[in-house]
């Protein structure tokens, strides 16, 4: 019996000790979590205070605040949405859309460009609603947005001339009437995006995903679209003069009224695309080019004729 009592006593003592250790550990963890939350709150307040330092002489302070928020966003996933909302509000208030859009959109301030870059590389892009740039007009000439996730963003009328947008996620983005002259969009995903009226002259769109993209009245003169995926894209009225469409997939694309003078359609797939024989009469193609039923293949070399050169 004494042995049994000793065993029971040891069991109860061990349980008590374990409970005490657990309580101490939980208390320590709670204190540590509370301290960490306090530190994050202090960091957030300090960064926002830096953002509010106005004036050209305080640009470096604002940039410090932007990058401090980026670090906080990476360190604390639960604060990511708040940081995103703050930076979006900063972009909107520091690049407001004027009543009249200037012919040449000026570059946005350096701190705004930095905020957009930070937002484009946010850690969890699918944990938050689309970036809210409504009522902002952005000048991002030569901006480096490689790999950025700007899906769903409103970039209407934006100036992205010469911008590096290689491999970026631009699904559902609005780039209506935007200037993308000479922009590099290789491997970018523009599925379901709206580029109606956009200027894509000499833009690099090789291997770009443009499935169901609206390119109505867009200017694609001289654009490079090698292996681009344009299935079901709406190119009604688009200017593709001299564009390179090597092996591009234009299956079911709407090319009503599109201009394809001297466009290189070598290897392109235009099966079930909406276009006429007249539209491709001055296009360059070879035997591997697949045309819709009823569309007459132009004579070899016709694209280089004097008549076509004068078009």
TrEMBL record:
Signal peptide: none
Keywords from the UniProt entry: Repeat
Domain of life of the native organism: Bacteria
Ranges annotated as spanning the membrane: none
Protein name: Pentapeptide repeat-containing protein
Organism whose genome encodes this protein: Paractinoplanes tereljensis
Upper lineage: Bacteria, Bacillati, Actinomycetota, Actinomycetes, Micromonosporales
């Amino acid at each position: 019996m004494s042995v049994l009592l000793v065993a029971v006593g040891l069991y109860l003592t061990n349980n008590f000790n374990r409970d005490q250790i657990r309580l101490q550990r939980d208390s320590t963890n709670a204190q540590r979590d509370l301290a960490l939350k306090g530190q994050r709150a202090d960091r957030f307040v300090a960064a926002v205070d830096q953002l509010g330092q106005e004036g050209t002489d305080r640009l470096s302070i604002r940039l410090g605040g932007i990058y401090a928020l980026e670090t906080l966003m990476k360190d604390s996933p639960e604060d990511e949405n708040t940081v995103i909302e703050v930076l979006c509000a900063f972009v909107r208030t520091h690049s407001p859309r004027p009543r009249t859009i200037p012919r040449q959109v000026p570059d946005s301030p350096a701190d705004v460009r930095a905020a957009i870059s930070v937002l484009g590389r946010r850690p969890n892009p699918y944990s938050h609603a689309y970036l809210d740039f409504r009522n902002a007009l952005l000048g991002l000439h030569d901006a480096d947005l490689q790999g950025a996730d700007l899906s769903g963003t409103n970039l209407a009328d934006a100036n992205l001339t010469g911008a590096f947008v290689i491999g970026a996620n631009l699904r559902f983005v609005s780039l209506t009437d935007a200037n993308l002259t000479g922009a590099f969009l290789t491997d970018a995903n523009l599925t379901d995006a709206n580029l109606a009226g956009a200027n894509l002259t000499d833009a690099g769109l090789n291997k770009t995903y443009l499935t169901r993209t609206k390119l109505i009245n867009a200017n694609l003169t001289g654009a490079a679209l090698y292996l681009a995926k344009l299935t079901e894209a709406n190119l009604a009225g688009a200017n593709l003069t001299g564009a390179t469409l090597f092996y591009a997939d234009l299956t079911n694309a709407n090319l009503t009224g599109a201009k394809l003078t001297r466009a290189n359609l070598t290897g392109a797939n235009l099966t079930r695309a909406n276009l006429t024989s007249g539209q491709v009469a001055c296009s360059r193609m070879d035997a591997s080019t697949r045309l819709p039923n009823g569309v007459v293949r132009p004579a070899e070399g016709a694209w280089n004729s004097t008549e076509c050169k004068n078009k």
